[in-house]
């Protein structure tokens, strides 16, 4: 299943609703917290895969999926949904694509810098 590849990076409807429901500074705070979440969950996922801990990997993917979809980051949410049920080899194979999606989400939020290194420990493991 590769539904994330066909999904828009951002869900315009969800974003419009968030903008209607929240003050600009509130939304900015939420997006900053989400950026930090991308970093920490990606690190958790990498560590879990490096340690061979499938349960922790699936939990990290699940947490990031929920936050991403709630904030209209559809492509990221859908690849994380795939990761929830994928094996380690599949996640490792998709790691560069996951990194690209994370970076695109951060850029769309006006944040610069990579979410994490594409050449992480799980890719080399």
Automatic annotation (TrEMBL):
Which keywords annotate this record? Answer: Phosphoprotein, Two-component regulatory system
Modified positions (Phosphohistidine) in chain numbering:
62
Spell out the molecular function terms from Gene Ontology.
Answer: protein kinase activity
Q: Which PROSITE patterns match?
A: HPT
| Pfam families associated with the record | Hpt
According to the entry, every stretch annotated as the HPt domain falls at 23-119
Biological process according to GO: phosphorelay signal transduction system
Q: Which domain of life is it from?
A: Bacteria
Record-given protein name: HPt domain-containing protein
Q: Please name the source species.
A: Magnetospirillum gryphiswaldense (strain DSM 6361 / JCM 21280 / NBRC 15271 / MSR-1)
